[in-house]
Amino acid sequence: MFGLGIGTGELLLAAIIAVLLFGKRLPEVARSFGKSYNQFRDGLSELQREINQVSDTVTSSINEPVTKALPYEPEDYDEPTAPKFEPPEDE
Questions:
Q1: Residue 3 CA: distances (Å) to CA of 6, 7, 38, 40, 66
Q2: What one-character-per-residue DSSP string does 24-42 give?
Q3: 72 DSSP assignment
Q4: 36-53 burial, b for 16+ CB within 10 Å, e for fewer?
Q5: Residue 71: its pLDDT value, please?
Q6: Are 67 and 74 in contact (CB under 8 A)?
Q7: Of 31, 58, 64, 88, which one's alpha carbon is 20 to 30 angstroms from that of 6?
Q8: Where along the chain do its domains lie?
Q9: DSSP 8-state assignment for residue 88
Q10: pLDDT per position as a tens digit, 3-26
Q11: Whether 11 contacts 4, CB under 8 Å
Q12: From its phi and psi, is residue 5 left (phi > 0), alpha (psi between -120 and 50) or beta?
């Protein structure tokens, strides 16, 4: 019925048990359960939004050019040089 493998008989049995346990308070309990469920869903939605926001921030920072992280401009940097190797002369 709901994709949980619960049939009509099981639902009827659960309804009878709920009436026996809660009696006249059943509407109040159901309302409280509904409010709690909505708060839980809102919390999950907020968590998902925060995760997506952090994910977008990380993704955008990964895609930034590397030159932005350098403390100098690459054009101003002189390549290091070493003296040219000259083999010793034969005598």
A1: 8, 10, 21, 21, 51
A2: GGHHHHHHHHHHHHHHHHH
A3: S
A4: eeeeeeeeeeeeeeeeee
A5: 62
A6: yes
A7: 31
A8: 25-62
A9: P
A10: 567 889 998 998 899 889 888 888
A11: no
A12: left
Whole-number Å distance between alpha carbons of 46 and 74 = 43
Rounded Cα distance, 7 and 11, in Å: 6
In sequence order, the 6+-apart residues with CB closer than 8 A to the CB of 7 are 1
pTM: 0.48
Q: Which two tokens stand for residue 89?
A: 């002369």
Residues in the chain, total: 91
State both tokens at 16. Answer: 């009878």
Rounded CA gap, 91 and 89, in Å? Answer: 6
- The position carrying tokens 């930034």 is 64
